[in-house]
Amino acid sequence: MLGLMTLLFLVIILGTCALVSVLRRARAEVWPTIDAFAEFRGALDPAVLSLRRDSFETARRLEQGRSSQRINAPSLGR
């Protein structure tokens, strides 16, 4: 009887250790996916999208200003 109880105790302990090990490995594989999804969802936030659109428009205006400066710049060596 004592042998059966010891065997049952060992099975419970080893099963718990195996389950914890599997869950840790699964969490290590799943959390980066969850983080990436949360980052993707955050990227779709309207406030973030408007900030990105504004910064894109600002960058476009700056680039247009630089190209017009290059066009209007006097030629020095000719």
From TrEMBL:
Record-given protein name: Unannotated protein
Species this chain originates from: freshwater metagenome
Organism placement in taxonomy: unclassified sequences, metagenomes, ecological metagenomes
